[in-house]
Amino acid sequence: MNMLLSEEQRDALQELMNISMGQAANSLARLIEAKITLSIPKISDVTPEQFVSMLSDQTMWYTRQSFLGSIKGEVISTLSKQGCDAIGKLMDYQPPLTQDRLNELLLELANILAGACLTGFAEQLSLNAKLSMPTMYSATSQHYHYRWASTLMMEVEFKVEVSQFDSKIVICLEEASVQTLLAKLQQLLE
């Protein structure tokens, strides 16, 4: 599938992502009372193989959340292993973190960031999307069934400066949802 966006559509989508990711960063910053910096949103068309290859970094934890509604897809959160204790302290988790407490922390972080990102993005385009609860994910230990041959992937990186912790939120849309998104973007641009 070729999902070439016009320059105008790409700019509009990046701006919408900037706003929704900013809302997510603000939610987490208020919770942990720390400064968070964001990368510029990256938008790309990826195959399942490319998607799996991005989930092979052994220095990261991964969560996934499906969403349904007028758009469908998944949100993948990558969370750095470095800085987990520090971010845990900021979120009132007592060190040392057991594996269960670490998983709880990671799922809570993913839900805060992914929830705010997807909600902000969908609301700006007058779309609805209901996000499932996050689960821990490992590309190497689970056989994963993809619902797409290729997808539009939107990602942004969050860095918590005081803890050396960083996270990336990746929103993957199914093919039919990409068409819905493009139609909404076109309406916005007219």
TrEMBL record:
Single Gene Ontology MF annotation:
phosphoprotein phosphatase activity
Sequence ranges assigned to domain CheC-like protein in this UniProt record: 8-43
Q: Which residues form the Chemotaxis phosphatase CheX-like domain?
A: 66-142
Instruction: Offer one Pfam family short name for this entry.
Output: CheC
Superkingdom as given in the UniProt entry: Bacteria
Concerning InterPro entries, the annotation shows: CheC, CheC-like_sf, CheX-like_dom, FliN/MopA/SpaO
Which GO biological process entries does UniProt record here?
Answer: chemotaxis; regulation of bacterial-type flagellum-dependent cell motility
Record key words, sorted: Chemotaxis
| PANTHER family in alphabetical order | FLAGELLAR MOTOR SWITCH PROTEIN FLIN, PTHR43484
Give the protein's recorded name.
Chemotaxis signal transduction system inhibitor of MCP methylation CheC
Tell me the organism's taxonomic lineage. Answer: Bacteria, Pseudomonadati, Pseudomonadota, Gammaproteobacteria, Alteromonadales
